[in-house]
Specification:
The protein has 422 residues and is mainly α. The protein has helices at 13-43, 46-73, 76-100, 105-132, 139-166, 170-189, 204-216, 219-250, 254-275, 283-290, 292-302, 307-335, 341-353, 356-370, 372-390, 394-398, and strands at 196-199, 418-421. The longest helix is centred in the middle third of the chain and has 32 residues, at 219-250. The protein starts with 12 loop residues before the first helix and ends with a strand.
Length: 422
């Protein structure tokens, strides 16, 4: 009976090893988020920290489409091992600079550009690799367990990092992050994967064009990614910039804001656990409905509603993020052929990050121009419209979860250039 309650995907050695790899690196990254901030603040100021964090984000925007092309041309395991090693080097050297007291802004920026570039290549490869090590019947379990692991470690990692920083050594937390990527690379390298047939165009540019054609031919994917882009433009900038201001003036200060954010993390853990078992017929519809509470939370902050109500709403937001992401990733992996999966995933990644800096640049001036409550309401309404509006796209409603035993995506037609990756 105990064995029957264990998700089937955990009995598959490849996924179990990859789950360990992902969990270890996520824990290290959570620690380094806190450690890097305090290490940089000890070296310079808030402006320096902003520049360094931007140095991570810009390469992700610039190179993520190229990352998708490479992940559809090469073995994804090789890409993930390589990017883990690059991240380990970047974080290890950053830790060494702060240990020795020789850190300067330019050097740390260069190292974090390395980190961001590696992330641009690892993201699309991860989506494809999860598909390679899972069957149609276990894909939802795989995505749910990865989401659950991340949700838990997003709570634990920063807390452990804060303890290490409080002990006086942010550089140590950065060093632990570097080691975590080495461990991740080791477990990912240990995956036992069969050879695959992969389409290869004459050039990288041809592959990029081919990925774009594959993407736009799937109107459901275009609609979803546009929705994600609008979400990134409005939700996180409004929440992270205007939310603390509302908490400071209307809700009692940092303690209330910390409680609101903490319950979002708890909700994400619950959402990951529920999506492990909860089956849906229309995964994209479910994904969109689950994120509606995010817009409602922004509107609730505009009122503002009592802290107790906002805490519950925040937990619902976290639940929706975790569950919705599980259904989205599963639908994407089941309904896109293997040879194009990472390229289409790269457009998803681009849509999810490209508009974020724009939102952060605009939300402050907009709040000064029309007012903080009005800006929060506008962003909240845009979020709800973006989430619900996509449901009216016919192709979005037509996507179903692929049942076990369904026919897999066809191999390339005769005459199409391809290569076998052994």
């Amino acid at each position: 009976m105990r064995r029957a309650n264990v998700p089937a995907i955990l009995r598959e050695g490849n996924f179990a090893r990859y789950l360990v790899a992902s969990s270890v690196s996520t824990l290290g990254s959570g620690m380094s988020t806190v450690a890097l901030a305090f290490a940089v603040l000890g070296m310079g100021g808030v402006t320096d920290l902003g520049i360094i964090l931007l140095a991570r984000e810009i390469p992700l925007i610039l190179f993520v489409l190229l990352g998708g092309v490479f992940a559809d041309r090469m073995r994804r395991r090789t890409i993930l091992v390589s990017t883990d090693l690059v991240k380990a080097i970047a974080q290890g050297l950053t830790a060494l600079l702060f240990f020795s007291g020789s850190a300067d802004l330019l050097t740390v920026v260069i190292l974090q550009v390395m980190f961001g570039t590696a992330s641009a290549f690892s993201g699309p490869a991860t989506t494809g690799l999860v598909r390679e090590i899972s069957s149609d019947s276990t894909l939802q379990e795989a995505n749910a367990l990865l989401s659950l692991s991340r949700s838990i470690l997003y709570i634990v990692g920063p807390a452990v990092g804060a303890l290490i920083v409080a002990a006086g050594s942010p550089a140590l937390a950065l060093a632990v992050d570097a080691v975590s990527f080495l461990v991740s690379a080791l477990f990912t390298f240990s995956l036992r994967l069969p050879g695959v047939v992969r389409m290869v165009a004459a050039s990288l540019l041809d592959d990029l064009r081919g990925g774009w054609r594959e993407f736009v031919e799937r109107r459901w994917a275009v609609a979803m990614v546009l929705s994600f882009g609008l979400f990134q433009l409005t939700y996180f900038p409004a929440l992270n910039v205007l939310g603390p201001s509302v908490a400071q003036t209307e809700l009692g200060g940092p303690t209330s804001w910390g409680l609101i954010l903490a319950l979002e993390a708890v909700g994400a853990v619950i959402g990951g656990a529920v999506s492990l078992r909860l089956k849906v017929v229309r995964p994209l519809v479910a994904c969109q409905l689950f994120v509606v509470p995010s817009g409602l939370l922004l509107i609730g902050l505009a009122v503002p509603l009592p802290v107790a109500v906002l805490v519950v709403m925040s937990a619902a937001v976290g639940f929706g993020f975790a569950a919705g992401n599980t259904y989205w990733m599963t639908a994407l992996q089941q309904n896109v052929p293997e040879h194009a999966l990472s390229r289409i995933s790269s457009f998803d990644w681009l849509g999810s990050v490209a508009f974020n800096p724009v939102g952060y640049a605009l939300v402050g001036p907009l709040a000064l121009a029309i007012g903080t409550p009005e800006t929060l309401v506008a962003c909240g309404v845009m979020n709800v419209i973006a989430a619900v509006g996509v449901i009216f796209v016919p192709s979005v409603r037509r996507i179903r979860m692929v049942s076990p035993g369904a026919t897999p995506a066809p191999l390339p037609e005769a005459g199409t250039p391809y290569t076998e990756l052994g």
